[in-house]
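sorry to bug you again but im stuck and you know this stuff better than me. what follows is a protein written twice so to speak, once as letters and once as structure tokens for the fold. mainly i need to know what kind of three dimensional shape the backbone takes. anything you notice is useful, everything is just below:
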Amino acid sequence: MSTPKIIRFKLTNGDTFGIFLDNLNKYPDTFLSKLVTNEGIFHSRTDFDGDCFVLDEHSQIFDSILQFYRYGILELPDRFDSVKQDIIDKYLLPVELVSNQLSSEKIPFYITVHDCQIFGKESGVLTTTGPPVNTISELMECPFSIMSDVYIKTHYMNVVNYLSTKGYIVELWSGHEHATVMMKKMK
């Protein structure tokens, strides 16, 4: 069995997100699906490593967009209600499927935990997350030192273990040069 392909996006504020290509392909006429399908024609992976598509979007909006690709429900934070139609239009989301109502089923919340290396120092000392640390309530209560709302001063495994005690489960583990762990929690 082959490993599902993960498509990575980096926002201009530095936040990174990932989604399985199969989820994007559910809606082939949408902006993100077309962006990935037509890579090199209109847009390419332009971050430093060439591994991510770079987009200028608010983290909470982009997280909601990816949740739409996963579950078919667009649930934006209330503060973005006034621009909801603009977001639907921008991402070419199928209007007939966009719903502001949550189903009775629980929806998973995803977190990616990244081992990072900064300024040439050894990895394993700092950890980042997507969405950002300061937006994850469980991490705001963690026993680790949080630096500038972006970095957690501990080994990424400590963060994974801590989140597992808060109800998160490991969904995907990538042990490349800099480890990335995708975790989810049903909300």
Summary: The chain has a mean pLDDT of 81. The helical segments are 21-24, 31-37, 59-71, 84-90, 137-140, 156-165. DSSP finds six helices and nine strands in the chain.
